[in-house]
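@channel sequence for tomorrow's demo:
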Amino acid sequence: MSVVKQHEIYRNFFQICHPLIAGKLSLLRQKQTDHKLFRELVHEITLLLGYEATQNLKTTEREIQTPMESCLSSFLADPAPVILPILRAGIGMVDALLSLMPSAKVGHIGLFRNEQTLQPEGYYFKIPEDSDQCHFYICDPMLATGGSAVRAVSTLKEHRVKSITFLCILAAPEGLKAFFQEHPDVPIFSASLDRCLNENGYICPGLGDAGDRMFGTW
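structure tokens (generated this afternoon):
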């Protein structure tokens, strides 16, 4: 049975503690893990995170016919949720979430760091029409400085989206602080809260650059 550990300071941060997640995360961190296995582990961890993060999805009842009789049964309520990966590493989490929510729609947000201001800037943004009525699941393997996560949530709120959940595999304390200073209302589900960021903004002990390791470009 999984344990959802709520942070003592940031009450909207939830760490999913489960033996399967712990074992897969250890493999994910290892330097020798190749990109094929890395992608598979990201998929599997996201499945386990997504199971917990979607527990408050709304349902509706409809009558169905079983081989024995008719009965009322629960289905996910409309409108369908939207999955929003932060490009590029967030793409690796999409298929797992779609396997849990096949009716979900998928948006995309592309962000890059301005080397002069060091702030994230958007280069691509696409979400379904009428998204303001949908629940969004933003996904990105790493919550490091928090800049991209904050910008992604802010962009959704600018488009009148009110219901948002953020999923990541690793989070750093510095990223949590920055995120919740801007968006204390948005819950975060993660597999781990790591120790800190290093001088280059990488999570420690971390796992390196998730995008590079996922796509074999490191």
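heads up for whoever presents: The radius of gyration is 18 Å.
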